[in-house]
Amino acid sequence: MPYQVFLKKGEEKRVQHGHSWVFANEVAKIEGKDSNGSLAEVYSRDNRFIGKGYINHLSKILVRIFIRSQEEDGPALYRKRIENAFALRKKLFSEKDTDCYRLVFAEADDLPALIIDRYADYFVLQCLSLGVDKRKDWVVQALSELFSPKGIYLRGDVAVRRKEGLPLENQTLCGDVPDSILVRENGLSMRVDVKCGQKTGYFLDQKENRFAVRRYCAGADVLDCFCNSGGFSLNAATAAKSVTALDISRFALDNVEENARLNGFANIRTDCVDVFDALRTFRLEGKMFDTVILDPPAFCKSAAEVKDAFRGYKDINISAMKLIRSGGFLITCSCSHYMTPTLFEKMLTESAQSCGRKARILETRMQSPDHPALLAADETSYLKCFILQII
User: Fold this and answer.
1) What count of Cα atoms within 13 Å lies in the side-chain half-sphere of residue 26?
2) Are residues 65 and 20 in contact, defined by beta-carbon separation less than 8 angstroms?
């Protein structure tokens, strides 16, 4: 008999409003018997049907609901959900300019714990729950039928898989996947390493923010911090006088240099350094820039780390503001869900006050729309990008 999960009184409200997660401590009782990763039915305390999702007793997220009717789980459901997701992406992007994007963004596309990124004729998956991992063959079948890809690759090296009892492993699921794939983003050519690069190979969520920085880089000396494979640097280079790209990873900087050559940019130079140290050195040397871009890794991955993260973000933003010529621009980002927009703006206000600079907000931005955010699940809204003028 399939699992039947009954929630405590009042715990159904968040899920009824559209959230997918049912936490173990929200459950009053479980009836039936099946295996981890199987489909479980979820009910309110008064026996009202809430939905169905995959169960895993090893995880704090006991059930991830993705069926809210009597719809059947199976290959047809996966194909339909992926078709619906693709219909949105076709409205968002012209493949002439951009052929890389997030095709499926987990909960926001009604397929919790499943990430599908498209890189030209290849797809890269992340299966972040046991239930989805058990059904990855259905995903491969749907992608093969809909797109006839040259290859499909699983990036299974994400730490969260351990919490689901899953191994950390990467593997080719279909076809032949090369080490690097040539893609187009915002009209630029990029080499993406889907096997060793960050996430599934590239930070697709910054796509539109990268394009937006061009207007703030015209004729400018630009400093791109934590540049990774150079998405911001390349977009800046379309308009800038010079771009200095900083990262602690030589692997990432090799990718920046290759991408610069692909696009014929001679105005990008790279420097393999610790960004915090480099900013302090620039300050001591009296070096100034017209535009500084800060896109650091997440400084906090839990609520308990927010206080320390606030100090870290403040430190680096103060350092950046001190290096910007009057009238120049700061493009500053945070990819941590726990650093809320309100808290991030507070940090920027304190940073400007601390270094005696006047700053005004020109734009507040979020993740690219191929990473849609559910109003009912604030975890899906995580990326902040503030564009400031520093006076």
Assistant:
1) 19
2) yes
Query: Which has the closest alpha carbon to 201: 225, 223, 177?
Result: 177
Buried b (16+ CB within 10 A) or exposed e, 340-363: beebbeebbeebbeebebebeeee
Element (H, E) at 141: helix 136-147
| Structural contact between residues 154 and 216, judged by C-beta atoms closer than 8 angstroms | no
Q: How many CB atoms lie within 10 A of CB 1?
A: 7
Q: How far apart are CA 304 and CA 293, in angstroms?
A: 27
Structure tokens at 331: 């493009």
> How far is 296 from 40, CA to CA, in rounded Å?
39
Taking the complete model, does pTM exceed 0.85, yes or no? yes
- Catalytic residue, chosen from 174, 225, 335, 385, is 335
pLDDT digits (tens, 9 = 90+) for 147-188: 999 999 999 999 999 999 999 999 999 999 999 999 999 999
Answer yes or no: are the C-beta atoms of 207 and 190 closer than 8 Å. Answer: no
| pLDDT tens sequence across 82-121 | 999 999 999 999 878 899 999 999 999 999 999 999 999 9
Using the predicted structure, report yes or no on whether residue 1 has a pLDDT greater than 80. Answer: no
DSSP letters for 113-131: TEEEEEETTEEEEEE-SHH
Residue 196 designated active-site? no
pLDDT digits (tens, 9 = 90+) for 258-282: 999 999 999 999 999 999 999 999 9
SS3 250: helix
